[in-house]
Amino acid sequence: MAMTKADIVEALYQKVGFSKKEAADLVEMVFDTIKSTLSQGQKIKISGFGNFVVREKRSRIGRNPQTGQSIEISARRVLTFRPSQVLRSEVNAALEGKPMDPQGMHKHDDEDDDSDE
Predict the structure, then answer these.
(1) Is the pLDDT confidence value at 107 over 60?
(2) I need a labelling partner for 33 at 20 to 30 A (CA). Which of 15, 66, 81, 113 fits?
(3) Sequence-distant (≥ 6) Cβ neighbours of residue 16 within 8 angstroms
């Protein structure tokens, strides 16, 4: 199941204590800022998360795989995301079944969990 914008708003509402309207407005402002920055061709770097980069691709000659006919593929901008090493490590730790602490960093097998005391 994919996480939606509504899920992000709900998480912000529950964890931070904003009203649902304030949480929704904040999420919208963040996404609007990201969209406008990327539409201007600027790079976005989020520490511990990753980089969003807009790349310019030149026009080129491609081939229709059904007919074999050559066609021109127009120039365009493409958006790429490169996750940070921290994010990659956390995703891989989750796949390996290692527990995650509330801050999002995975616990090492040799650490004791004494946070319940």
Answers:
(1) no
(2) 15
(3) 23
Cα 57 to the center of its chain, rounded Å: 22
* Per-residue pLDDT, 26: 95
Q: Which residues pair with 85 in a beta bridge?
A: none
CATH architecture of 1-40: Irregular (4.10)
Nearest alpha-carbon partner for 34 in 20, 14, 54, 48: 54
Report whether 100 contacts 94 (CB < 8 A). yes
Q: Please state, in angstroms and rounded to a whole number, the distance separating the CA atoms of residues 64 and 59.
A: 15
Domain boundaries, the chain: 1-40
> Which segments of the chain does DSSP mark as H helices, in order?
5-16, 20-39, 85-95
Cα distance between residue 67 and residue 64, in whole Å: 6
Quick check: pTM over 0.85? Answer: no
Which among 101, 117, 99 is positioned nearest to 109, based on CA atoms?
99
